[in-house]
Amino acid sequence: MTAPLRRAKGPVRIALAGAGNRGLTYTDWINAHPGRAVLTAVADPLPAARARAAAGAAG
Length: 59
Known about the structure:
The protein is of the alpha+beta class. The chain has one domain (13-57). The chain is 39% helix and 22% strand. The protein is built from two helices and two strands, in the order E-H-E-H. Helix 1 (21-32) links the parallel strand 1 and strand 2 (37-43). The longest helix is centred in the middle third of the chain and has 12 residues, at 21-32.
């Protein structure tokens, strides 16, 4: 038997591993759902991609 699901008490913290198209899709979701998620870290070998993802999640 599995435990019942519980909703988080605050925003979910998200760390992106890769800031390509998929990562930017996640930043779009974060912006569309304010208060439900916060981008806390971005890992990508390209500095421009990291900056783009961080700026996208900032709104």
